[in-house]
Amino acid sequence: MEQLDCTGYDEAIEELRQREYPMLQGTTYLDHAGTTLYAKSLIERFSADMITNLYGNPHSASNSSQLTTRRVEDIRLRLLKLFNADPEEFDIVFVANATAGVKLVVEAFRDQEEGFWYGYHRDSHTSLIGVRETAAHHRCFASDEEVHQWADSEELDNEVAGPGLFAYPAQSNMNGRRLPLEWLQRIRQTKHSGMYTLLDAAALVSTSPLDLSEPDNAPDFTVLSLYKMFGFPDLGALIVRKASSSIFDRRRYFGGGTVEMVVCLKEQWHAKKLDTLHERLEDGTLPIHSIVALDAAISVHGELFGSLRRVSEHTTVLAALLYQGISSLRHGNGLNVCQVYKELSSTYGDASTQGPIIAFNLRNHLGGWVSNAEVEKLAAVKNFQLRTGGLCNPGGVASSLGLAPWEMKENFSAGQRCGNENDIFRAKPTGMVRVSLGAMSTLKDVTSFVDFLHEFFVQEAPPMDTPPVTPLSTEPPTTCQLHVESLSIYPVKSCAAFSVPPGKAWEVRREGLAWDREWCLVHEGTGAALSQKRYPKMALIRPSIDLEEGVLRIKLMGALQDATSRHEMTVPLSADPRMFSAEDVYRESNAKVCGESIQAKSYRSTDISYFFTQALGVACHLARFPAVGNGTGSMASPRHSKAHLQKYQKARGMHIPGAFPDACLLTPGTVVSKPILLSNESPILTISRSSLNRLNELIKAEGGKAAQAEVFRANIVVAQNLDCLPGAEQPYAEDDWRYLQIGQQYFEMLGACRRCQMVCVDQQTAERNQEPFVTLSKTRRFDGRVYFGEHTCHLPMGDTWSPLVQNPTIAVGDPVRSFGQDEADQDSGLWALVS
Ligand SMILES: *Cc1c(COP(=O)(O)O)cnc(C)c1O
């Protein structure tokens, strides 16, 4: 790796190594063996318990039931002790997650006759913010200063006669900032009994101890996500200070084991359990096996990682290094690469003010923002588990990013949603990147993450002003002709390709090549179309079109053969309505593609569904899109309806292979959205063999595995004729193509195709690789987005009676002619079509 421009960071790592920091000694902390060892030990301990003991539903006299009750009570005590909470003073209620703990508290406040007042800090997680909808009056505290002023005044908010509840996170889930715990005591001292406190410790306790040894200074209610501490089991907890538990007396709901007796026929009354708080609040059967697993988790976690204090020390040191590494990255021109969202009052390295989480955004060398979606894709390929977006923390994110409420609303109206790709609006990011460290994180994780940012986001030298050197050719390129090297269709969306046999004339329609993406697989539960991004094994489902037999033939390849009893199946090409699910004939089911609903009809045959369900291990149906016009009509197929087609306007200098966008295209601080298709759906996708060769040369030079054309889901591969001289190849010439003539048909180039990590699924083995996405990201990334291939659509000719119009076809081997805008203006045949 090249020398990072951050001496402080390198020195700190060296010093750390020399100092032999105890937490980093031993294999547990130096490699991922720690994670594996933890998971293995925990599951083995739990499974040994499950195999040896029988746990019955509690509340009966049987041995198995008694055993459960005993274990659960022991574990309750053990968990309380983990937080130094005296069982005389505190009770613990098992819930599904931290949010369920909040809801239980809220239920009690909501059932107070006079309603309640609710205050919450800006840094709150959405689980705390939603509480305001149930309160008679609520207030969001925009700063610590506002909290101090309010906490120090003895007045209760007099808008509401009922009690008050003040909630805040012990640690922000956005940037890991740790908020002062002394507020709890301060509020209790000035406000007395009318005001309660709710501490959201879900983020804090995953890497920090929480000390409840002094009940007077402790929160009235504390919520935890135990899975965030231990990874497993999926369980949460609510710790209640017993002195404040009377608030639950007014809780109206009861259920399961929380009542002693219920009468519901002639009279309606019930007697609530009175013994312990948790008995009153744990509605329904406890997740007893999860609670038993918690016992194993506490033990194994303690044995491997020591106390929560040690975890805190370990993560604090690592986070300080990571912060140093991230914040000292510089572009070649000296500009900062990362904008870190850290509170002024917090310091990395100081566990009382800062947890091991770093939230940031990246800038390019011109000061423009790098899209979160792009960072997330690259991180996924490099196997870093990070999170991006709004992070369920709207207040913290808005204040860090300087987004006013009107801007957030406007972004929302403009289509911005949590998790979508358009994450930069009006030159401001709408989310951020978050990395979190835990007990199992290592020094190597830190250094390799900083290296990763350096490798992909640091631009060493300012981009050249001069265009790249085009390969010297002894002959002018015009004499070197192009042809169709291959034609492929993808009969079942996201499954393997079918190659059109050489010489076979294949029909082109306005909505694409015949039979391309005619079918899809839809999830039985959600109705969404399945894709290789989530189900890479779809690459091993190999459909073919057999026009002689009139069937779509589907073969299962490779590993899928091991999972299935049947390896081949056929479906008639004719769309016989009787084959489709009865209600679908009248009320068409929705197949969701790219989040938008389009209509598809699912096959009713259970045999067909079973075939795909068994192959992929996910309950799904085969569905077919309804037929559209004969190819000369103007109606686009519904399967492509979400292709937000935009005319491709050339911006000179944009398409420099291997370079970042030219300075003229980006003004510092802004990100220009290019007139390029955002969707991965378009009628036809064309790629160039020369470009693929160039890409593969670069991949191989780095020791990577060359990419096959299939990973790009191309329909048409255009290549130079064999008699072209070596060196005459023109990689990425397609960036400047405006139209193509293939055989006797004309096509329009709609824009470059944006890529995601789906191109990394090997179409032979269904395994995920890093390539070609990594090399593409380094060489074909414009404005933070990665492009390869061109969206293309057929230009049908006017209404003549010639067979060329009625049955337009292309074939492998057809000659190809490309037109730039200038050439297009001069070609009369083409001109007649598009004018
Ligand atoms: C994760 C988290 C939550 C939500 O926890 P769940 O267990 O998902 O309900 C709430 N607050 C903070 C600070 C968190 O980190």
TrEMBL record:
<dbReference type="Pfam" id="PF03476">
    <property type="entry name" value="MOSC_N"/>
</dbReference>
<comment type="function">
    <text>Sulfurates the molybdenum cofactor. Sulfation of molybdenum is essential for xanthine dehydrogenase (XDH) and aldehyde oxidase (ADO) enzymes in which molybdenum cofactor is liganded by 1 oxygen and 1 sulfur atom in active form.</text>
</comment>
<keyword id="KW-0808">Transferase</keyword>
<dbReference type="InterPro" id="IPR005303">
    <property type="entry name" value="MOCOS_middle"/>
</dbReference>
<dbReference type="Pfam" id="PF03473">
    <property type="entry name" value="MOSC"/>
</dbReference>
<dbReference type="InterPro" id="IPR015421">
    <property type="entry name" value="PyrdxlP-dep_Trfase_major"/>
</dbReference>
<dbReference type="InterPro" id="IPR015422">
    <property type="entry name" value="PyrdxlP-dep_Trfase_small"/>
</dbReference>
<dbReference type="InterPro" id="IPR015424">
    <property type="entry name" value="PyrdxlP-dep_Trfase"/>
</dbReference>
<keyword id="KW-0663">Pyridoxal phosphate</keyword>
<dbReference type="InterPro" id="IPR005302">
    <property type="entry name" value="MoCF_Sase_C"/>
</dbReference>
<dbReference type="GO" id="GO:0008265">
    <property type="term" value="F:molybdenum cofactor sulfurtransferase activity"/>
</dbReference>
<comment type="similarity">
    <text>Belongs to the class-V pyridoxal-phosphate-dependent aminotransferase family. MOCOS subfamily.</text>
</comment>
<dbReference type="GO" id="GO:0030151">
    <property type="term" value="F:molybdenum ion binding"/>
</dbReference>
<dbReference type="Pfam" id="PF00266">
    <property type="entry name" value="Aminotran_5"/>
</dbReference>
<dbReference type="GO" id="GO:0016829">
    <property type="term" value="F:lyase activity"/>
</dbReference>
<dbReference type="InterPro" id="IPR028886">
    <property type="entry name" value="MoCo_sulfurase"/>
</dbReference>
<keyword id="KW-0501">Molybdenum cofactor biosynthesis</keyword>
<dbReference type="GO" id="GO:0030170">
    <property type="term" value="F:pyridoxal phosphate binding"/>
</dbReference>
<feature type="domain" description="MOSC">
    <location>
        <begin position="649"/>
        <end position="819"/>
    </location>
</feature>
<dbReference type="GO" id="GO:0006777">
    <property type="term" value="P:Mo-molybdopterin cofactor biosynthetic process"/>
</dbReference>
<protein>
    <recommendedName>
        <fullName>Molybdenum cofactor sulfurase</fullName>
        <ecNumber>2.8.1.9</ecNumber>
    </recommendedName>
</protein>
<feature type="active site">
    <location>
        <position position="392"/>
    </location>
</feature>
<dbReference type="InterPro" id="IPR000192">
    <property type="entry name" value="Aminotrans_V_dom"/>
</dbReference>
<feature type="modified residue" description="N6-(pyridoxal phosphate)lysine">
    <location>
        <position position="228"/>
    </location>
</feature>
